[in-house]
Amino acid sequence: MTRNGRRGWPRRRGMDDGAGAVRPGAAAGPVLRAVGLARVYGEDESAIWAVDGIDLDVPAGQMLAVMGPSGCGKSTLLQLLGGLDRPTEGEVWLGGQRIDDLGERALARMRRRCLGFVFQAYHLIDELTAAENVELPALLAGASPRTARHRTAELLDRVGLADRARHLPSQLSGGQRQRIAIARALVNKPLVVLADEPTGNLDSAATLDILRLFGELRAAGQTLVMVTHDERVAATADRVVSLRDGVPADDTALDSDTGTARLGTLLNWEN
Ligand SMILES: Nc1ncnc2c1ncn2[C@@H]1O[C@H](COP(=O)(O)OP(=O)(O)OP(=O)(O)O)[C@@H](O)[C@H]1O
């Protein structure tokens, strides 16, 4: 994946620490956009172009699955889209505002307010209850304790875990932990949810629970980008982008009207 013919180290753009927060709903075009996005690890002969020039538009309300073989750049792409990593080249736009050149504080604020993250390993805080894990990002984003509690109660209900609010993560199953993580991702009403292998640690039954939940989110108009290895999971999306060596090799729109039917097929796969 070393690019031939590239010389020198790409110049890093200046960072704008004073950049304002992204305004949700400010987008006229796609809610999430990548322009010429690239990320190189290492230098010179050992340079690896994990993401090698990706243009991507994600319209509001789309559920996009990113697939491809191990090492093709899926996680790197998701991290760049979510402002968890900086591109070597290119731009990321969220809600009509460029985010890749924000300063660290503005970027952190943008992530808290405008994005929700779901990881394969859940990344819940072990010492906090399920409800506290969900509430925390709301409080960090400036919500009052009352609002955070109210929103958390709504979300725990929505993910079917209202009766587990006071449980610690260690007292929950993997599927339940992931549902708490999804509730946490939603607590600040993000423009986009980014999920990296959200079903990677789960058995078939728990995977179906998560996919049903994603189906409900999609029906409610939530934009979602997920990385998955599982074709059955990807089949529930509106669109599948397959990466090879850091670039899209295939970009397929699926028939969004058949989402319910696809979930039905997945139910049969379980039986
Ligand atoms: N921090 C890093 N330092 C050096 N190389 C890295 C780093 N992170 C990723 N890479 C390399 O970048 C490439 C893309 O990695 P990435 O994790 O994005 O792939 P992936 O498609 O998500 O893989 P998987 O499906 O196995 O999780 C790989 O060749 C990987 O070895």
UniProtKB/TrEMBL annotation:
SMART domains hit by this protein: AAA
Question: What GO molecular functions are on record for this protein?
Answer: ATP binding
SUPFAM superfamilies reported for this sequence: P-loop containing nucleoside triphosphate hydrolases
Pfam families annotated for this entry? ABC_tran (PF00005)
Q: Where is this region: Disordered?
A: 1-22
| Leader sequence residues | none
Annotated keywords: ATP-binding, Nucleotide-binding, Transport
Compositionally biased residues, Basic residues = 1-12
PANTHER family xrefs: IMPORT ATP-BINDING PROTEIN (PTHR24220)
Q: Under which name does UniProt file this protein?
A: ABC transporter ATP-binding protein
For this protein's source organism, the top of the classification is:
Bacteria, Bacillati, Actinomycetota, Actinomycetes, Kitasatosporales
